[in-house]
Design a protein that fits this description.
By secondary structure, the protein is α/β, with parallel strands linked by helices. The protein has helices at about 15-30, 75-85, 85-90, 105-125, 190-195, 210-220, 255-265, 270-285, 305-315, 320-325, 330-340, 340-350, 350-360, 365-375, 425-435, 475, 480-500, and strands at about 5-10, 35-40, 95, 105, 130-135, 140-145, 150, 155-160, 160-165, 185, 205, 230, 380, 385-390, 395-400, 405-410, 410-415, 455, 460-465. The two termini are about 25 Å apart. Bound molecules: flavin-adenine dinucleotide.
Amino acid sequence: MHLTNITIIGGGACGISLFIELFLQLRIANSHKKVSITIIEENEEVGKGLAFGTKQPGHILNTQADLMGIHFAEPAHFSEWLKKHDSRVGKEIVDNQGEDQAFTTRRLYGDYLKEQFDLYFELAEKEGMSVDLIKASATDIEKQKNGYSIQLSSGQRKLCDFAVLATGTPVANMYEELSDKKNYFDSPWPSSKILDRVPRNENVGILGSSLSAIDALMTLADNDHQGKITFYSLDGLMPRVQVEKPESYNCQHLTVSNLHKIQREELRSPTIFEIFRLFKKEAENFKGKKINWKKTKRTGVKADKLLKKDIAIAEQGGDALMNIPYALRYESSQMWKLLDENDKLRFKSWLGGYWAVNRHCMPLVNAKRIEKLFEAGQLEVIPKLEDVAFDESDERFVLTCQDKKRKEKFLINATGPASAVKDMKSELVKNLATRKLIEPEKAGGIKINTQTMQVINRGKSCPDFYALGHITNGLLLDVNAVWFNVKTIGNLSQHLINSITGENSL
Ligand SMILES: Cc1cc2nc3c(=O)[nH]c(=O)nc-3n(C[C@H](O)[C@H](O)[C@H](O)COP(=O)(O)OP(=O)(O)OC[C@H]3O[C@@H](n4cnc5c(N)ncnc54)[C@H](O)[C@@H]3O)c2cc1C
């Protein structure tokens, strides 16, 4: 008997969550013996993607434990797991505001993911389902009359009826021209390659100043780096500092209902200017008085000063600029979907940087470590990066900022994950784009049906091809949070199972 095969490419947080949910729903429907599931993962272990494969204790989750559950509709599963594994996880909980709100190391979260995968993989086998984990890289996919043929790095091909892209966050292909230079690192991960090759006393330049740059910094700081570390970035802005216990706040002006009202009354999408106006009104409501917006400008202020101020603000419960994006976290994707394509692009270029530093903050524990590095004169942030070149004569990288040149022997590219398909460093994504099996979305990532997570091709939802996570970033916005991706998995698995059982054609 031909078993319908579902192949999930990528065994990270999304791939694991989907695998477990598909198994559960198929088992409950007693259809699990008619379907086989394959996971293709290029790393040694599942669950250990870019974010959770790290070994550094300074790489901390930026989301509290009770939102990090990997099981659909059970966000608190990870905090429950922490309580059960109390003795084992002690040192890995770095910021314990009560176990439910704990922030743990990312490596512990990777262990949790792997454990959940192993548990349900074994259970699926025990229940008589055909499941398979292939350790290889998927490099290309070809459409067949029925289903797909997936090219593997091992030289083999895997045929499947349904394919799901869950390949995670590809690093950017910026500064490719530097990639053959001996002391250049194209990404802060895996940290082992940095630790193996950068001597402790050497100075290091880091491109970027966002969360990825903080990761590179923490890798060096965790390992007692003594040389000077310099961030070079466009705006010189570091992420703000996470409030330990944010007070709950209900937005009254910037709401989905007010944006829908604009649609209803004006018969058009809300614009980014209208949204910004509502945000300002919301912030003044939060604060209870008028805000001098000029004073909230962060560019032009030294990073160490901003950090000190942000630590104090975080310890006092945060401010409007941080707490409103946080309060909007369950609705921001829905609001994003109401914008038209041009306003999404406008948001990215005009407000994207501010959104990123306020919405995705750094943990307080790390902020205090970084403050000490500034005080010791070991860290500097230089804005207005204009150019990066390589001087062959002395084998140094030359960084130009506001017409001034600085030299670095070691350089780490921490400019963050690529948003646009053309910038993603992934052979598979490149080949899929060349074959036109995926189509770029202007605001980033690929075109998908946001209800079902089916890939959209030539204006139509593909009946047998789905995508999850970062590759859907332009349409969904919030894909850099596990809890958000896990939510999208519910719809995907429901749709896929209905396709197999024929219910979608009813
Ligand atoms: C540095 C960093 C820190 C983050 N911190 C947090 C956080 O604190 N909290 C939070 O909620 N979210 C965080 N995120 C976002 C989080 O990683 C994502 O929301 C989530 O991991 C997405 O899971 P994923 O499975 O899509 O990606 P990943 O976890 O990256 O998994 C993708 C998997 O696919 C595999 N793969 C890729 N390409 C192929 C291929 N061609 N063939 C075979 N296998 C392939 C990879 O090896 C990897 O295992 C962070 C992201 C990054 C980059």
